[in-house]
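Colleagues,

For the teaching module next term, I've prepared a clean inverse folding example: a structure given as tokens, and then the sequence designed for it. I'd like students to try predicting residues themselves before seeing the answer, so please don't circulate the second half yet.
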């Protein structure tokens, strides 16, 4: 039996592939390389010493997707694929609804055709929007997002819940990621976006290697201890392991929709993250304080207790580990991929 990973060459998908292969699973990976490349596939093989099936396709291509199901005994799907640039999604919403939402529908229809009804979906803490408490619990309602990207995550969660209502033999795990950072400690896998990064850690990495001049911290007048925003950064390898635990949970259950926050439960400010990076790596990261970025929340972090209790999952890596591994990776992969 194989596990199908959509977007398996990407940042989170590739780290999950490593953990799954290390546990002896068979994998079929599909990816269209829209935000990844072949190098990560080679890295997965090198790290694990194991092979897997790979198809360079977009998951909206029904015919080619069906072929993947024909050629492999797919037992479950981990669905990572999707566009994820928040700013771009505001400018080009249809691109996001088309790829993320319509693409997921094609995937689910294909799964039904081949009688595969077990799926783990990559959702995001963004679905919570602004809440009264900054410690987010799975029972909080989903709030319409200012970005089309955020709304695609909300819609797909809803689609999965409706699908389960229509056929309660489905097994669905929805994983709400907080802020994944870090890299595999081999330095072979990590995140290295092309151009100017949108997210904090990739930006810090590029300043540290001298590709960008300085980091701008978006505002220091937030309602937090040091005035900079606080987030729940978690190591991508911890996150990857969360997917294995979610699959194990689905294997144990008869059916159902299970939703989990994946985060550490500890908020860290922008300044704390930058200063930790500087300290553990003994490298300078010049920064200045700039204006606020529109739409940023003062603080948001996970209540991870449900995942701990039901999945037996707990993030184990520290902020120091995240900063060390991010630096190790970027030094070995200076050019953006
Ligand atoms: N930040 C800076 N300077 C930068 C980039 C970011 O100060 O150059 C700050 C932001 O203002 C924010 C923090 O660093 O306070 C983290 O920003 P990121 O863009 O790295 O992460 P976000 O929390 O804004 O967004 C992340 C994911 C989204 C997801 C969202 C909510 O990138 O996909 O969490 O879950 F939607």
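(Answer key — instructors only)
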């Amino acid at each position: 039996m194989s596990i199908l990973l959509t977007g398996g060459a990407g940042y989170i998908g590739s780290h999950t592939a490593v953990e799954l292969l290390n546990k002896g699973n068979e994998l079929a990976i599909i990816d269209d390389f829209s935000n990844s490349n072949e190098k990560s596939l080679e890295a997965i093989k090198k790290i694990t010493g194991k092979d897997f099936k790979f198809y360079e396709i977009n998951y909206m291509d029904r015919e080619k997707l069906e072929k993947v199901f024909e050629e492999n005994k797919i037992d479950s799907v981990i669905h990572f694929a999707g566009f994820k640039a928040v700013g771009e999604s505001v400018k080009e919403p249809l691109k996001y609804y088309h790829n993320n939402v319509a693409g997921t529908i094609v995937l689910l229809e294909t799964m039904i055709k081949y009688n595969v009804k077990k799926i783990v979906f990559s959702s995001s803490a963004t679905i919570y929007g602004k809440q009264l408490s900054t410690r987010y619990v799975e029972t909080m309602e989903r709030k319409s997002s200012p970005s089309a990207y955020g709304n695609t995550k909300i819609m797909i969660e809803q689609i999965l819940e409706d699908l389960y209502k229509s056929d309660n033999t489905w097994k669905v795990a929805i994983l709400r990621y907080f802020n994944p950072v870090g890299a595999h400690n081999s330095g072979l896998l990590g995140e290295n976006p092309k151009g100017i990064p949108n997210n904090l850690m990739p930006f810090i990495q590029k300043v540290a290697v001298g590709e960008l001049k300085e980091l701008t911290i978006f505002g220091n007048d937030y309602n937090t201890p040091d005035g900079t925003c606080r987030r729940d950064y978690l190591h991508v390898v911890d996150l990857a392991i969360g997917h294995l635990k979610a699959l194990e949970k689905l294997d144990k259950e008869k059916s159902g929709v299970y939703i989990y926050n994946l985060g550490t439960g500890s908020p860290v400010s922008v300044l704390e993250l930058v200063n930790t990076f500087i300290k553990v790596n003994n490298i300078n990261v010049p920064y200045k304080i700039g204006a606020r970025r529109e739409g940023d929340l003062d603080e948001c972090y996970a209540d991870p207790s449900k995942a701990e209790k039901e999945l037996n999952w707990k993030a184990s890596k520290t902020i120091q580990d995240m900063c060390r591994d991010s630096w190790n990776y970027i030094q070995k992969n200076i050019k953006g991929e």
